[in-house]
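Example record

The entry below shows one chain as it appears in the dataset: sequence first, then C-alpha cells.
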Amino acid sequence: MLWSSYLSGLILGLGICSLHCSLVLAPLVAHLHSTWRGGVRTALLFSLGKTIALTVYGGLAVLMGFLVYDIFHHRWITFAAGMVVALLGIWFLLYSGRCGCLMRGGSPLVLGLVDGAVPCAATSGFLLFLATRGGSPLLGMAGGFLFGLGTATGPALLICGLAPSLWRRLAGNSRARLILRVAGSSILFLWAILLLAGAGL
C-alpha cells in the first residue's frame, strides 16, 4: 500500500496537482523572492503544509473508516479554509513589505495546510481508498505522508524556481508589478469564493 500511495501522489503531481499548485504559488513566489532557491523553498513549505494535512487525514481515514469523508468535507472546515485564503488574498494585494519576514515563511505553509485540509476529488478518492484498506492508523498516516510526498515531486518545484527570475525582469516596471499582484490575489480570491460557496453557509 505504501508504494502505491507514493506512486498515486506522483502521478497526480505530474498532472492536475502541478497545474493547481503552480497557479497558486507562482505569483506568490515571484513577488516574495529574488532567487531560485527562495522559490523552491516556498514550494517545499507549501508541500510540507499539504503533506502534514494529508498525513493526519490518512490516519483518520484508517481509524474512522468512511466517517472521515464527512470530517474533511464538513462545512465549517471548508468555511474556515475559505476565510484563510481570502485573508491571504487581501494581504497579497495590499502587501507593502512591512510583514515580509513573517509571510515569506508563513503564507506558503498556511496555503499548503489549507490545500490539504480541503482535498480535491482525486485526493478524496485516495483517502477513501485508505479507509477501505484498513490496518493501523500509523499505516494510514504513512500512506497519507507518502501520497503528499508524491504530489510534491512534480514540475511545481521547477516552476517556482523559475518564477523569481521572471520577477527580476519585471521589477523595474511598476505596472507589471501591479498586474502580477492583482493576478496572484485574484487566484486566491477565486479559490476562496469556491471554498465559501462549497461551505453552503
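Notes for this example: The radius of gyration is 17 Å. Residues 2-199 form one domain.
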